[in-house]
């Protein structure tokens, strides 16, 4: 009999498009996971558009939602996934909830996507960083920072592969068994030809590190990190093998963005799709084609392979 996996996902939501919970829910459900969603923000669309409208969840509202689950005894989870949490008070409440859930179920897997910023800048208040580092990090079983976020969490400047491995080891020492750097390229490269993903696992005294080189596609996608974190959760659970899980998660994301880019390029040729100022397809045509990529989620396939470096 298959295990009954149930995920509590706390991250952003958009009415139109695919970021946050909209990127994570469908892939997890497709792969057999029940998903309960709490939206840290509810926006009309992602913030890459000229404007957006919406609301941010307060810590009190999050507590009210969780209390409803708890009082009805439906707060039983095998996994927790968290992403964009925009305020100190909300993040501190997430710390409390994850702590309680892990106490109730010590085998619960917590996947922390520490959404703080990218390309050298924060898009959350600086006061959030120590809460991620000191509050959520010690609770995480898997963490999926990008290059900038790993620098923030490790308090290191990361330029070389050696820097990457040392920063990941810093997070292992803080109690995180699996650290996945979702995107790395040599600083200063304007248009990198490839993005490198690193995964590091430490169980007891044994450490394994995997490197995955991914061809870069020249387009501005949004929600791919949220999709990747969800796929990593699913495939680590299903395979219990870091290398295989990373290969399958990367294959899914590559399949989705290639289908999306093809769609956007076709739209660019007709009257509905006008090029942006940078010569790329406009924002709305680059929304992830998740539903149309269902086969890439169910049966990911790619020639991209992970290389064991430790």
UniProtKB/TrEMBL annotation:
Q: Which GO terms describe its biological process?
A: pyridoxal 5'-phosphate salvage
InterPro entries associated with the record = PM/HMP-P_kinase-1 (IPR013749), PyrdxlKinase (IPR004625), Ribokinase-like (IPR029056)
Q: Which GO terms describe its molecular function?
A: ATP binding; pyridoxal kinase activity
> What EC identifiers does the entry list?
2.7.1.35
- UniProt keyword annotations, A-Z: ATP-binding, Kinase, Nucleotide-binding, Transferase
Q: Does the keyword Cell cycle apply?
A: no
The record's GO CC annotations read: cytosol
Q: Which pathway is this protein engaged in?
A: Cofactor metabolism; pyridoxal 5'-phosphate salvage; pyridoxamine 5'-phosphate from pyridoxamine: step 1/1; Cofactor metabolism; pyridoxal 5'-phosphate salvage; pyridoxine 5'-phosphate from pyridoxine: step 1/1; Cofactor metabolism; pyridoxal 5'-phosphate salvage; pyridoxal 5'-phosphate from pyridoxal: step 1/1
What EC class does the entry list? transferase
Q: Which reaction does it catalyse?
A: pyridoxine + ATP = pyridoxine 5'-phosphate + ADP + H(+); pyridoxal + ATP = pyridoxal 5'-phosphate + ADP + H(+); pyridoxamine + ATP = pyridoxamine 5'-phosphate + ADP + H(+)
Which NCBIfam families does the UniProt record give?
pyridox_kin
Regarding protein family, the annotation reads: Belongs to the pyridoxine kinase family.
In its UniProt entry, what is this protein called?
Pyridoxal kinase
This chain's source organism reads: Ornithodoros erraticus (European soft tick)
């Amino acid at each position: 009999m298959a295990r009954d996996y149930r995920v509590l996902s706390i991250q952003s939501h958009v009415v139109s498009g695919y970021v946050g919970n909209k990127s994570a829910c469908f892939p997890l459900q497709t792969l057999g996971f029940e998903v309960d969603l709490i939206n840290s923000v509810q926006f009309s669309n992602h913030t890459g558009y000229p404007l957006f409208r919406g609301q941010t969840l307060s810590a009190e509202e999050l507590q009210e939602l969780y209390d409803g689950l708890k009082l009805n005894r439906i707060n039983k989870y095998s996994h927790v996934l968290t992403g964009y949490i925009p305020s100190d008070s909300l993040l501190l409440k997430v710390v409390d909830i994850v702590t309680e859930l892990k106490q109730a179920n010590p085998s619960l897997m917590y996947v922390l996507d520490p959404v703080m910023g990218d390309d050298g800048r924060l898009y959350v208040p600086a006061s959030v960083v120590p809460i991620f580092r000191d509050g959520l990090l010690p609770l995480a079983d898997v963490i999926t920072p990008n290059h900038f976020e790993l620098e923030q969490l490790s308090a290191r400047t990361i330029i070389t592969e050696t820097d990457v491995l040392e920063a990941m080891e810093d997070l292992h020492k803080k109690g995180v068994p699996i650290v996945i750097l979702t995107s790395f390229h040599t600083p200063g490269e304007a248009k990198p030809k490839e993005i490198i993903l690193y995964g590091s696992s430490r169980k007891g005294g044994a450490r394994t590190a995997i490197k995955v080189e991914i061809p870069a596609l020249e387009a501005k996608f949004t929600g791919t990190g949220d999709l990747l974190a969800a796929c990593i959760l699913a495939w680590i659970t299903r395979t219990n093998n870091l290398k295989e899980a990373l290969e399958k998660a990367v294959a899914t994301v590559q399949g989705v963005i290639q289908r999306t880019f093809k769609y956007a390029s076709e739209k660019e040729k007709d009257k509905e799709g006008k090029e942006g100022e940078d010569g790329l397809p406009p924002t709305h045509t680059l929304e992830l084609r998740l539903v149309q990529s269902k086969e890439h989620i169910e049966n990911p396939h790619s020639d991209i392979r992970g290389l064991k470096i430790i």
